[in-house]
Specification:
By secondary structure, the protein is of the alpha/beta class. It is built from 13 helices and 14 strands.
Length: 344
């Protein structure tokens, strides 16, 4: 190769390196959020532990905390969120139409949803699976004992399709009773219109705790019949916003792994000599510029919601009303499958 060609190649490589190093340009969603001063977040109409409003209109839950963390990272204040309660049928249309900025509503990631709705999946916030709840007095011990029985289910969900598949695969001839609204499906089950109620196992625990007159009168059968990786979704075509939502979740997982909590985040910003902590909190390295944010984007998110483990424990964990085990949602180095790519 001639000297001239070598110089040309070196110039091209240098130019590419410069492109890679350029901070992210703010996408249209980020621009709109900053102009509005608020993240508009689509949530469930009422699923305890994930997204539910109290009598004063205050929203809490794991999915709600994702919205708060994003608002803290982008706007500096986790309270700058407008919550839009959506049923299963309306959730994707609301995101596609621009009514909301992010859908954080116990939504399962699937190929169809990723490839055909014009939406992008981000990061899994809860690994779940579909189960069945039955009255204890029914004496049912297994989902395979539901042959010919009625099962309440919500329409427009992966749950409805999974129930059909499970019934066919096991020749059970289950008779679905389908409802458009979650509350209607729950109400029908507790009124005795169905032998069983099916949804994600976390949703069953939430419903039993919130709706049942006596939660001990109902049991969740041991089988899980599907994989339900749940997490926030955004509109396709705005890579910058997708990255912000995705890396906010990843950052909360990385914070837990690094021992950063809501209580110690401020102290660690100035006292920690750990390069990983310094990079996460912006004291040693500025990762925010790659997302169109400032260097303390993740520090604010952690201070607002705590790390992922704190969010889990507070909303759905063994010490919460739902009392769900950490299980698959533990960190990868503690027996679970929650594994975040490095924030670096």
């Amino acid at each position: 190769m001639s000297i001239k060609k070598l110089k040309t190649l070196a110039t091209v490589v240098a130019a590419l390196g410069a492109v890679v190093a350029v901070p992210a340009h703010a996408g249209k969603t980020l621009d709109a959020v900053k102009t509005r001063g608020q993240v508009v977040c689509g949530v469930n109409t009422g699923l305890a532990g994930f997204s539910a409003a109290d009598s004063n209109g205050k929203w809490t839950g794991l999915d709600v905390d994702v919205c708060r963390a994003v608002a803290a990272a982008v706007l500096g204040d986790g309270e700058k969120v407008k919550y839009v309660p959506l049923n299963a049928q309306a959730r994707f249309t609301a995101l596609q139409s621009g009514e909301i900025d992010v859908l954080s509503r116990n939504t399962t990631f699937t190929l169809t949803r990723d490839a055909s709705l014009g939406l992008s999946q981000t990061a899994v916030t809860y690994y779940d699976g579909q189960g069945f709840m039955v009255p204890v007095k029914s004496k049912l011990k297994s989902a395979k004992q539901l042959k010919g029985q009625t099962v309440c289910v919500q329409s427009g969900t992966t749950t409805e399709k999974n129930l059909t598949d499970f019934s066919k695969a096991n020749a059970l001839n289950i008779k679905p009773i389908v409802f458009e609204k979650l509350e209607a499906a729950e109400g029908a089950y507790f009124a005795g219109r169905c032998v069983a109620y099916t949804t994600d196992a976390s949703g069953l625990a939430s419903t039993r705790n919130k709706v049942a007159k006596n939660p001990a009168d109902h049991m969740i059968l041991p089988e899980l019949i599907s994989k339900e990786p749940l997490g926030p979704m955004v509109r396709r075509g705005d890579d910058e916003w997708t990255a912000i939502v995705k890396w906010t979740v990843y950052g909360l997982l990385e914070a837990e792994e690094a021992g950063i909590t809501a209580a110690n985040v401020d102290d660690l910003k100035t006292s920690s000599q750990d390069p990983v902590v310094g990079r996460l909190l912006g004291s040693k390295e500025d990762t925010g510029k790659l997302l169109g944010l400032d260097k303390e984007w993740l520090a604010r998110a952690v201070k607002t919601t705590g790390n992922y483990g704190e969010m889990f424990e507070r909303n759905v964990g063994p010490k919460s009303a739902l009392q769900l085990p950490r299980g698959l949602n533990n960190l990868w180095n503690k027996g679970g499958v929650q594994y975040a790519p490095p924030v670096r």
